[in-house]
Amino acid sequence: MSMYGRDPWGGPLEIHANDSATDDDRSRNLQDFDRAALSRPLDETQQSWLLGPGEQKKKKYVDLGCIIVSRKIFLWTVGSILAAGLLAGFITLIVKTVPRHHHKAPPPDNYTQALHKALMFFNAQRSGKLPKHNNVSWRGNSCMRDGKSDSSSVIKDLVGGYYDAGDAIKFNFPASFAMTMLSWSVIEYSAKYEAAGELTHIKEIIKWGTDYFLKCFNSTADTIDRVAAQVGVGDTSKGPNPNDHYCWMRPEDIDYERPLYECHSCSDLSAEMAAALASASIVFKDDKAYSQKLVHGARTLFKFARDQRGRYSAGNDAEKFYNSTMYWDEFVWGASWLYYATGNSSYLQLATAPGLAKHAGAFWGGPDYGIFSWDSKLPGAQVLLSRLRLFLSPGYPYEEILRTFHNQTSIVMCSYLPYFTSFNRTRGGLIQLNHGRPQPLQYIVNSAFLATLFSDYLAAADTPGWYCGPNFYSIDVLRKYAETQIDYILGKNPRKMSYVVGFGNHYPKQVHHRGASIPKNKIKYNCKGGWKWRDAKKPNPNTIVGAMVAGPDKFDGFHDVRTNYNYTEPTLAGNAGLVAALVALSGGKSGGIDKNTIFSAVPPMFPTPPPPPAPWKP
């Protein structure tokens, strides 16, 4: 038997199973076998069988100390680095040698320019020992004995704070509303303040006010029985007695007694002061010690407001100037701010109590419904609580009343639009929120702030607009309303007059303001000695930059007369609304609101399921 295989060198190989040849014979036979085949050229495979692996070229390496790398890789790496460096240098040379056109930053818009000026008004209204950087050359330290001359009061130090208007009275009710408005604007638009370079300034303004409010009651106690409501007197009906309205003097020269008014049942004032401290605590949340101090004071004031019911202005001097019509709206307003400042749900439960909302007038309507002011806080509170619904949706048990507040806010926004007849307008386009009564601008700036803010809320919630009845309106319409009203105030009106002093070229020159109307000439004018400056026909010797005067009448008319305060007197609360509206409009639509800061103390919300239905009875 034989097997046939293939000779790897090309010839046939025959193997006999019974071959008994020795190994030597086989070796000799193989050596002699087909020598011609071995002499032929061999292919690569055959060479590899015979010769084994061929000789490889020895690689060269470079010893770098810590590692050893191939010389080829080393040269490639070094070459690549050098080439990249040369390319980068070439590009840099081109960039530096090619001429460039420098584009200047666009000038700030009118709202930002007016904002710088409007804030300066608060510097001019400061009482007490002024800071070195107050930057109002004609002002100095004033009324350094406030609170110290009244032996009947336990509150002894009331130096500081702000003068209310063109006089030297310190009314805490409108002043605390002003500080709340400023804090609210910072909470929502801190980035815009920072872009305008005014964030530090506005915080200093707020702190000057809150530091004073902390002096007006025992801020370290948990329970109090009194609050300072006012310093100074404005009533002149009792004869020619020297006081803040009878006399015309620079605050620095005041030498008459300035009595302190305390209140022991003043829910409206105490709740508004609580709102001011609570909102400011969010502004100063990075200063934990001061923020906690403000929160504690706000809690104490609000407890006093709830425990001792009453209107602060009933039967006293403030009734003629800043009369409070009720305190229910301050309860909703103050409770809302305390909820945001503390996260304590008991305040939210109070703010959303249907009975409280009813007492505050949430369902009344009427000609003055929706007018936000130092006296009526409900429109602002409803916007503030609509924010909660838009961004946190707390659900049951708050949803029903929050939805009502949201709907009421939408109705108020509709009333601002020119398509509806809730309010008349002058021929020049100024809305008559106070129905033609004097001093209209303070209400208009507040509405402009709320309109812009609400439109920014909707934009942040990805909501393009809202319904007025069956008609849908874009949020741009709200911003347009605010812009037209503020533009009117800044000079786009029939008289071409800016009602903000120092803005533009044509503005009131005879502002009803004692400090601005009397020259700082080292002469002390007594109580009646300043009357000649009050009655002078010349412009004020000192420009009170940023002051928004009371405004024109319902015919777009304006009388620049110092003695007519219904046209020419600025107020703290009015300027606070102006600042809030200006910062909201500044920079256009860019920026928007800060969605989260106001919720920094609010715990996560997990809606409580509604109670189960009553068992079915057949």
From TrEMBL:
EC number(s) in its UniProt entry?
3.2.1.4
The record's similarity note reads:
Belongs to the glycosyl hydrolase 9 (cellulase E) family.
Listed under catalytic activity are: Endohydrolysis of (1->4)-beta-D-glucosidic linkages in cellulose, lichenin and cereal beta-D-glucans
Q: Which GO terms describe its molecular function?
A: cellulase activity
Q: Where is this region: Disordered?
A: 1-27
Residues annotated as domain Glycoside hydrolase family:
111-582
What PANTHER family does the entry give? ENDO-1,4-BETA-GLUCANASE
Domain of life the protein comes from: Eukaryota
Q: Tell me which residues this entry annotates as catalytic.
A: 512, 560, 569
Q: Which UniProt keywords apply?
A: Carbohydrate metabolism, Cellulose degradation, Glycosidase, Hydrolase, Membrane, Polysaccharide degradation, Transmembrane, Transmembrane helix
Residue spans making up a coiled coil are none
| Residue intervals passing through the bilayer | 73-95
A GO biological process of this protein is: cellulose catabolic process
PROSITE patterns in the record:
GH9_2, GH9_3
Protein's name in the database: Endoglucanase
What InterPro entries does this protein map onto?
6-hairpin_glycosidase_sf (IPR008928), 6hp_glycosidase-like_sf (IPR012341), Glyco_hydro_9 (IPR001701), Glyco_hydro_9_Asp/Glu_AS (IPR033126), Glyco_hydro_9_His_AS (IPR018221)
